[in-house]
């Protein structure tokens, strides 16, 4: 029995093709520590904001400032991602991120931090992330040396690490805040950026064959990227559905405290259980995808997970039982993660190399840039009719939109198949 178990474990890791590449292994080590540090800073920052102001509104303002630059800047950042050396650019970006965390830590430890400092540095971090995310996403292909068999595995492993950090980071933050204070949490994040910067510097990246001009016509390159996506029906559908899923799912994160306190009659521990359940669901989805290589299966998952997410959100809104709520939010977390990872993989596999940065910037906008607007809308609806109705409305929107896009795509494929059959058979 033990032999069979060990054999299964060995077989599992042998199938993680992305880990065969030295550059990707270095990236994974640095990325894991960096993401844990990011979650530590995020928790410490929100705690510090509330301690300084006792204002829920300012909590929303800080979160909005950190996310909205992605919506505004990421498409332009994608242009540079296609022209710059991604390895060198990422090194500079991580250095700026480290500086942001270091400055926030120093201000806090000196006891002179004010709310405007946090808002300004959150805005700076949002701008940094707007460049970093599309650059990092498009750099994955270079780390696995263009191996399209390893690429889905690499993206799934990235998702696994992200969701593991979502579980570990807040737990570590809670311990550090109580033991040493928020300032050292920010310093810990700065250290994590230093580690990921070190891992990048240790990589051996071959020179790209892509010729990069020093002068970049941003507007025309952006238009070129938009036209490229518009002419590709699959990419267009993938990005639209991703935007709908992310926009809708934002309501769960925003309104989870209402469910924990008012609906389930719990406390902060109940909120922790809900967030952990969503993280566990996401991890299960990521682990499932690490061994899935079929492109056809990924397309079916994308088509189905939007429907599953909407259904899970509606069930969560209706539930008044903690065990059932944990189950439904876990389903929502699993659906959202699998949809995101599969969309990423399909885009990376089908995009031309010289358009990769721009397409992944559109991916970033649809994934993260829609979240602050989803949060604002969910909050507004909740203010009128309550949290459960707000989540149910957002879930219903996700469900109906996913069904519509799915049926539209099926109809389009059937129509093309019939046209092809007529051409082959000689019928007009």
Describe the structure.
It is a single chain. The protein contains 15 helices and no strands. By secondary structure, the protein is mainly alpha-helical. The protein folds into two domains: 202 residues, Up-down Bundle (Growth Hormone, Chain: A); 211 residues, Growth Hormone, Chain: A, CATH 1.20.1250. It is globular, with a radius of gyration of 22 Å.
SSE string: HHHHHHHHHHHHHHH
The total number of structural domains is 2
By CATH, the superfamily of the largest domain comes out as: MFS general substrate transporter like domains
Count up the helices: 15
Total beta strand runs: 0
The CATH class name of the largest domain reads Mainly Alpha
Spans where pLDDT lies below 50 across 5 or more residues? 9-14
Shape: globular
The major beta sheet can be summarized as: none
Average pLDDT across residues?
A: 77
Q: Into which percentage range does the β-strand content fall? A: under 5%
User: Radius of gyration from the CA trace?
Assistant: 22 Å
Structural class: mainly alpha
The level of helicity is over 70%
CATH topological fold name of the largest domain: Growth Hormone, Chain: A
CATH architecture of the largest domain: Up-down Bundle
Distance between the termini: 64 Å
């Amino acid at each position: 029995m033990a032999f069979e178990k060990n054999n299964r474990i060995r077989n599992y890791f042998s199938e993680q093709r992305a880990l065969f590449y030295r550059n990707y292994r270095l990236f994974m080590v640095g990325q894991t520590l960096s993401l844990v540090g990011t979650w530590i800073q995020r928790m410490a920052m929100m705690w510090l904001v509330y301690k300084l102001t006792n204002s829920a509104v300012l909590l929303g303002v800080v979160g909005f400032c950190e996310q909205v630059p992605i919506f505004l800047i990421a498409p332009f950042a994608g242009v540079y991602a296609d022209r710059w050396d991604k390895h060198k650019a990422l090194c500079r970006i991580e250095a700026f991120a480290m500086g942001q965390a270091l400055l926030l830590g120093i201000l806090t430890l000196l006891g002179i931090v004010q709310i405007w400092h946090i808002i300004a540095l959150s805005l700076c971090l949002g701008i940094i992330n707007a460049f970093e995310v599309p650059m990092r996403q498009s750099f994955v292909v270079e780390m696995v040396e263009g191996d399209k068999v390893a690429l889905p595995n690499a993206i799934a492993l990235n998702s696994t690490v992200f969701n593991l950090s979502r579980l570990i980071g807040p737990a570590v933050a809670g311990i550090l805040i109580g033991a040493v204070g928020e300032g050292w949490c920010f310093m810990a994040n700065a250290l994590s950026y230093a580690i990921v910067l070190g891992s990048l510097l240790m990589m051996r990246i071959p020179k790209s064959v892509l010729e990069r001009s020093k002068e970049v016509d941003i507007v025309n390159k952006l238009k070129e990227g938009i036209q490229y996506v518009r002419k590709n029906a699959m990419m267009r559908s993938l990005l639209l559905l991703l935007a709908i899923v992310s926009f809708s799912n934002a309501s769960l994160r925003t309104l989870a405290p209402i469910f924990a306190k008012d609906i389930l009659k719990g406390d902060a521990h109940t909120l922790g259980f809900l967030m952990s359940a969503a993280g566990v669901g996401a991890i299960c989805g990521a682990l499932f995808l690490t061994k899935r290589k079929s492109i056809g299966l990924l397309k079916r998952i994308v088509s189905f997970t939007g429907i599953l997410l909407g259904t899970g959100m509606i069930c969560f809104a209706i539930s008044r039982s903690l065990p059932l709520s944990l189950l439904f939010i876990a389903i929502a977390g699993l659906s959202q993660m699998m949809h995101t990872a599969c969309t990423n993989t399909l885009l990376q596999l089908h995009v031309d190399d010289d358009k990769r940065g721009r397409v992944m910037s559109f991916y970033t906008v649809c994934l993260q840039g829609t979240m602050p607007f989803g949060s604002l809308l969910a909050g507004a609806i909740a203010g009128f009719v309550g949290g459960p109705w707000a989540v149910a409305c957002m879930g219903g929107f996700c469900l109906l939109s996913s069904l519509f896009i799915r049926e539209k795509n099926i109809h389009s494929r059937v129509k093309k198949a019939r046209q092809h059959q007529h051409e082959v058979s000689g019928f007009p």
